[in-house]
Write a structure and sequence with these properties.
The chain has one domain: Cytochrome p450 (Orthogonal Bundle), CATH 1.10.630.10. It contains 18 helices and 10 strands. Strand 8 and strand 9 form a beta hairpin. The radius of gyration is 23 Å and the shape is globular. The N and C termini lie far apart (63 Å). The protein binds protoporphyrin IX containing FE. Protoporphyrin IX containing FE binds next to helix 5, helix 12 and helix 17.
């Protein structure tokens, strides 16, 4: 077995608790050579057969556990969230300026708590209801772009996610293309993301990165402050406007701390929503191209519930169970964060007789949960019906219970993210058809889906044909 862990309490050391099972580590390197560097979740999923739902490993000198089931994730990350809500230390976070724009990598403590509280006030379930009109409006604008310029569908998803974010956070309405402030905020996080998964390389110059992060945090914030000073807000609600008003009432001494936390929480919302939303929409389109029957089924549901003379709204959501099942299956089929965002333990713990030392990195293997053949037979197939029972109602199994993370660090943008993705999906299903692209000779262009890996696993752009549905005439487009 392993050498005894460092940092155990006296009692733990005396009783020599066992670490959870796991592969035998090499001296110095630990288990690093056995792990798939691009897709580590595949290795951890394979190891599940040998070691079970809680496995222990070492990456160089870092102790880590991988949780391979929702049950254990709930038992530890949720029910013991006091212990499991820290983040592992990452050497790249400070020098590259990440902590200026997000609290997602901040350790469990007061600084994180303040930003998270501010965030939560805007993004808790009831508060996010007020974003629905903006989400729907932006989803419909996206359709106009998709019909106009189908080739660049990926760009339109990016525009959709950033423009929803910019509206609800800064009350800023970016112009359709080449908006300077949106460009500032839409940054591509793939090449410079912290190296959570030991799969990506970080070669960017830290100073350039920090400057960019500062601009991303400050420019839209200053624009919101200016709107406020000029009393020229476009909409009624935005996270920054609401909080700047709150800040006005505070005593002078607390204002600077509050402002820093607010700037960071606002930038964190843009960062958190941008790539997650557009990557999820890419998975959806991939599914619609590869599974045309699913698309037809969903369109038939929308046509019969909503009709063809108007577009779906949030009020229709409860009457569209099949569309809901597509959303669930989209989240499950290719989870965009296959290892979530790693947590760390802030004190020693014992679970089922296994010792988990303080400072252990804790990863929830969302990929393994999504590929559990007992729960999801034929798991690699896109099959929304798995979430529908014999009476046609939705089952209790909702992948939102794991794809947004668990415990106190679980995604605070979950309700807004879910609603953005739903509004985009339902509007696309009502108005356009996705199918395989064809070449000049009319031959279907076949392809094998490829994925970018890193913290976020996203489908690479693939050839795809997007055309308006037959009833989507100019009159309906005018309604968009
Ligand atoms: C489809 C959409 C999304 C998915 C799948 C997703 C998933 C996740 C996951 C897995 C985590 C880590 C949770 C953990 O540590 O256990 C997370 C954290 C976070 N997400 Fe999301 N997210 C989505 C959308 C959003 C949106 C729309 C926002 C902002 C409005 C957002 C903001 C954040 C923030 C700020 C954190 C860090 C929380 C913390 O460390 O305390 N996310 N998200």
């Amino acid at each position: 077995m392993f050498p005894s862990p460092s940092g155990g309490s006296v009692e733990n050391r005396q009783s020599k608790p066992r670490l959870p099972p796991g592969p035998v580590p090499l001296p110095l390197l630990g288990n690093v050579l056995s792990i798939d560097t691009k897709e580590p979740w595949l290795t951890y999923t394979k190891w599940r057969a040998a070691y079970g739902d809680l496995l222990f490993m070492r990456i160089l000198d870092q102790e880590a556990v991988v949780i391979n089931s929702q049950h254990v994730a709930e038992a530890l990350m949720d029910k013991r969230s006091r212990i499991y809500s820290d983040r592992p230390y990452l050497a790249t976070v400070e020098p590259f300026g990440w902590s200026t724009i997000t609290f997602a990598f901040t350790g469990y403590g007061d600084e994180w708590r303040l930003s998270r509280r501010l965030f939560h006030q805007t993004f808790r379930p009831n508060s996010t209801l007020k974003f629905r009109p903006v989400q729907m409006r932006r989803a419909r604008e996206m359709i106009v772009n998709l019909i106009d310029d189908p080739q660049h569908y990926h760009d339109h998803f990016a525009t959709f996610s950033s423009s929803v974010g910019m509206s609800v956070i800064y009350d800023y309405q970016p112009s359709a293309r080449d908006d300077p402030l949106r460009e500032q905020s839409c940054f591509n996080s793939s090449p410079s993301l912290p190296d959570w998964c030991w799969g990506s390389s970080i070669k960017r110059d830290a100073q350039i990165s920090t400057d960019r992060m500062n601009e991303m945090r400050d420019l839209p914030f200053q624009s919101a402050q200016q709107h406020m000073a000029e009393n020229s807000f476009l909409g009624q609600f935005s996270m920054v406007a609401e909080n700047l008003q709150r800040m006005e009432k505070q005593d002078e001494a607390s204002k600077p701390i509050f402002e820093v936390a607010l700037k960071r929480a606002a930038a964190a919302a843009i960062l958190g929503s941008y790539e997650t939303t557009s990557s999820t929409l890419m998975v959806f389109v991939l599914a619609m191209v590869l599974y045309p029957d699913v698309q037809r089924h969903a369109q038939a549901e929308i046509d019969s519930v909503v009709g063809r003379d108007r577009l779906p709204t949030f009020e229709d959501r409860a009457s569209l169970p099949y569309v809901e099942s597509i959303l669930r299956e989209t989240f499950r089929w290719h989870p965009i964060l296959p290892l979530g965002v790693p947590h760390a333990t802030s004190s020693d713990d014992t679970y089922n007789g296994f010792f988990i030392p303080k400072g252990t990195t804790v990863m929830c293997n969302v990929w393994a949960i999504s590929r559990d053949e007992k729960r999801y037979p034929d798991a690699s197939r896109f099959m929304p019906e798995r979430f529908i029972d014999v009476d046609g109602a939705l089952t209790d199994d909702d992948p939102a219970g794991y794809i947004f993370g668990l415990g106190r660090r679980a995604c605070p943008g979950r309700y807004a993210g879910d609603a953005s993705v739903w509004s985009a999906i339902v509007t696309m299903l009502a108005t356009v058809n996705f199918s395989f692209a064809k070449d000049d000779q009319g031959k279907v262009i076949d392809f094998t889906p490829q994925f970018n890996t890193g913290l976020i696993r996203s489908v690479k752009i693939f050839p795809c044909n997007i055309s308006p549905r037959s009833h989507v005439h100019s009159g309906l487009v005018d309604l968009l």
